[in-house]
Structure to design on (198 residues):
């Protein structure tokens, strides 16, 4: 079954799977200095990259406020998510309360741009997989020669020290910067579990 990209338009679609359409991303990359990974991809691959980028953004970020509709498929649109770039405006004509929230009928341009940016990153490399050597702090190798009853033997041992902070984030730094005004990256970490013996 072929993928059908369904862009969230701010109405809280129950079947939306992307914050940007291929045409939106094509326009975004017209003003990008490094668009080749995007421009050389087929329309089908671009659509898949946008859908996957949206999944990653939604799973890696806790956005401020709450979902605008109980049945919507994605994290956006949202209610009561502050927009630091927005002046105070009257929320409704009936209730003259001043707010600076992102309107609950749209997806912020920064979120759509972050998805476009992540889609290109995913075309370059699988950011969900650990790259070779990730988490390795240092490797120490020792070589020893042993003399035993006239025959010499050699042995080599290696010790690897790991550093959990040396890991590549799934969301690129550029996309993180675009999303930071609307929420926070969910920091994953290892937890501990208490062992209870029966």
């Amino acid at each position: 079954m072929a993928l059908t990209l369904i862009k969230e338009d701010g109405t809280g679609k129950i079947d939306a799977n992307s914050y940007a359409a291929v045409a939106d991303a094509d326009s975004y990359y017209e003003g990008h200095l490094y668009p080749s990974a995007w421009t050389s991809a087929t329309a089908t691959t671009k659509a898949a990259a946008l859908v996957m980028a949206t999944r990653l953004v939604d799973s890696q970020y806790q956005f401020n406020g709450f979902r605008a509709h109980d049945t919507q498929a994605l994290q956006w649109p949202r209610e009561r998510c502050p927009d630091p770039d927005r002046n105070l405006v009257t929320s409704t004509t009936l209730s003259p309360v001043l707010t600076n929230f992102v309107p609950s009928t749209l997806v912020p341009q920064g979120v759509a741009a972050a998805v476009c940016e992540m889609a290109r990153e995913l075309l370059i490399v699988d950011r969900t997989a650990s790259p070779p050597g990730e988490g390795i702090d240092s490797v120490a190798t020792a070589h020893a020669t042993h003399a035993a009853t006239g025959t010499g033997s050699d042995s080599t041992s290696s010790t690897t020290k790991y550093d959990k902070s040396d890991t590549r984030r799934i969301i690129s730094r550029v996309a993180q910067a675009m999303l930071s005004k609307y929420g926070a990256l969910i920091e994953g970490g290892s937890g501990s579990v208490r062992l209870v013996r029966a």
In short: The radius of gyration is 24 Å. DSSP finds five helices and eight strands in the chain. The first helix runs from residue 22 to 30. Helices lie at 22-30, 36-39, 43-60, 109-124, 173-179.
